[in-house]
Every structure is written in C-alpha cells, then in structure tokens.
# Entry
Amino acid sequence: MTELKQKVKNALNEGRTLILGSEVLIGFEFRSAFQTGFDKLPFVIQYTRLAGLCLMLLALALLIAPATRHRLVERGGDSQGFLAYTTRIIEIALLPFALGLGIDLYLAAQKVTGPKSALAAGIIATAFALFFWYGLEMLDRRKQGKEKTMSNQKSTPIKALSEDETTLSDKVEHVLTETRMVLPGVQALLGFQLSIILLESFDQLSSSSKYIHLVSLALIAVSIVLLMTPASYHRIVERGEDTEGFHRFASHTLLAAVAFLALGISGDFFVVVNRVTHAMLFALIASIIMLVLFYGLWFALPIYRRTTGNY
# Structure
C-alpha cells in the first residue's frame, strides 16, 4: 500500500505535468492572434481559435486549483480529502484539454487540407486523446475490479528486497520523472509547429512539404497524448497506488511516445532541409539519417546492452 505522502506527491507531480502542456498551448494561442496570417483567416476560424483558448484557460484554472487549496486549506499537509480533490480535478481538466487540442489540430489542418478533412482530423485527435485519457482507464478499471475480487482470495508471499534492489515506489517515481523530462520540450515543439502555419513563408512551401509538416504535427500531438496518459491512468485506474502494472504501462507509453516523437521531428527536419537546399532527395536522406540516429540511441543501443548484459 502506497503511503498517503507519496500519493499526494505523485498527484501534484502529475498535475504539474498537465499544467506544462496547457501553458505551452495557451502561449501559442495568445501569440497566434498577433501573427501576420491571423488577420487573413475567416472570422469563423478566428472565433474557433478563441474558443480553443478558452478551453485551455479552463483546463489551466482547474489544474492550478489544487496548489492553492493545498496552501490555504490544508496548510501544506497531506489528507485523503486533498488527494481525492486533486484526483477529481485532474480527471475533469483532461476534458477541455482534449477538446482544445482537437481544435488546434483542426485549425492547423484546415489551412492545408480544407475544412472537411480538417474537421475529421480534429474529431479524430479529440477522440484519440479522450480514449487514452478516459476510455482506456475506464476499461482497465473494470478489468482490475474483477481481478482484485479474485486476488483477495489468495495470499501473496512478501519478497524481501536485496540491498541494491530498487523499490516499486522508486521505479514509479523514476518513470514519472522521465515522462516529465520529455514532455515540456515536446509541448513547446508542438506550439512552434502550430505557429509556423500562420507565417507567410509557410504558404510558399510546396504542397508535399505542407502535408509532411501536418503529419509531423500530428505525430507530435500523438506523442503528447501518450506522455500525458500515465498521469491520468495513475489517478483514474490506480487511485494513486504504485503497482507493477502501472509501472509497466507507464514504461510502455513513454517508449511509444518517444518513437512517435522521433518520426515527427524527422518529418519536420525534412521540410526544413528541403526549404534550405531545394533538394528533395538530399532532404529525404538527411531526415532518414536523423531518424536512424534517434532510434539507434533511444532503442537499438539500450536493447543491445540489455541483451548482451553490458550495462
């Protein structure tokens, strides 16, 4: 059983993870209103951007609320009431965040693909986020409820830890810390990718480069959704408990997120190299080399060391 102190710490850290995402996208929304391309957008699109900003501000207001309550009500202390409040706030805040993310992707796609395809992209993005932040957790919660009933009838022997063995709580804290290490940069990258679309120089790109940029943007968005998933999973499914199942789940989502991140960065690297050199073949080779570098350092080398035992 995870201690209350550790549960509260994890809840606040997970809230901080979500706050970083909303703040980056809010900064983009504020900045987009002053971009040269914003005035050329139809009024419907401008007001849709305003709606997306409102949703992100609502998410931010909810996510910061636990911090002020912890100071004013709890006086910095840990309590079950505060833990339940923080858990509920995180669950609610994910909804406007998902809607705001979907609006941002709709607006980005609208300039490249047209309104109908953009609407489909926005709906898919929102549905994808809602599934990973709510649907997946609800399914796993029902499954765990059935398994817990069966496991309660069995007794599990307690394994003694060796001196150099990492505890489960430490493993969970490590994977959440690693997620927070990756997330801020990915969120900032998404903000820059979105803002590029409003620049006049973006209109000068070839049609293929515009689509590659849009696909890269979508890949980065997928990475963000996956990086934020462990926080919601820990709150909704595990109720803040540190379990081996959560550690395994968070590890898998982190690895999947950086895999999509590598694809997204390499795609935009192709766009930049092609714009500078005006040589599509050279840009393609350069982006493939960059992708191989990412996958080699992030996956191939660690797997090789694990299989050979050369740590």
Q: What stands out?
A: The chain has one domain: 4-143+167-308. The CA atoms of residues 274 and 283 lie 5 Å apart. The two ends are 32 Å apart (CA to CA). The chain has nine helices and no strands.
